[in-house]
Amino acid sequence: MKKIKITVKKVACYQDLIDQYENPLEDACDMKEGQVFIANGWQKPQGFCDSAWESLSPFVLALAHGSENFYDGWMKNKKSAMISCNDGFRPVSFLLETMKEGAE
After folding, report:
1. What dihedral angle (degrees, nearest 10) is formed by the CA atoms of 49, 79, 100, 5?
2. What count of Cα atoms within 13 Å lies in the side-chain half-sphere of residue 40?
3. Is the pLDDT of residue 69 over 90?
4. What is the largest CA-CA distance in the chain?
5. CA neighbours within 13 Å on the CB side: how many for 35?
6. Span 89-99, average pLDDT
7. Which pLDDT band, with edges at 50, 70 and 90, does 101 fall under?
8. What pLDDT shows up at residue 104?
9. pLDDT on residue 62
């Protein structure tokens, strides 16, 4: 099974929606742009957001098992995917990339 590199590419924050709809949170998302995680197959990387993992894990698992070219040419790199978490207040966009054998 291949390892998958997960890079935080964009962190958004919709303060107007937070102010209008969200109850105050003590521990909101703490992902930072440029942060990198390595998934070993289906295993969630240590320190990775549980909610974001729910959104990403099907794609991570597929890439780890050799799938590629999602949605008939959606990505320039057929061994990758750009997936966002499901947080409507603070969506985070992640680049998933299949790693070459022996890379870490």
Report:
1. -10
2. 4
3. yes
4. 48
5. 17
6. 97
7. confident
8. 61
9. 96
Every domain of the chain and the residues it spans: 3-40+51-98
Is residue 99 a contact partner of residue 2, using CB atoms and an 8 Å limit?
yes
User: In the beta sheet, which residues pair with residue 68?
Assistant: none
The stretch 72-79 carries a mean pLDDT of 93
Here the tokens at position 29 are 């998302």
Strand order in the sheet with 36-40: 36-40, 3-11, 92-98, 80-84
- CA-to-CA distance for 94 and 84, rounded, in angstroms? 6
**CB within 8 Å of 99: residues ≥ 6 apart:** 2, 3, 4, 5, 38
Instruction: Tell me what the mean pLDDT of segment 14-40 comes to.
Output: 92
Q: How far apart are CA 77 and CA 97, in angstroms?
A: 8
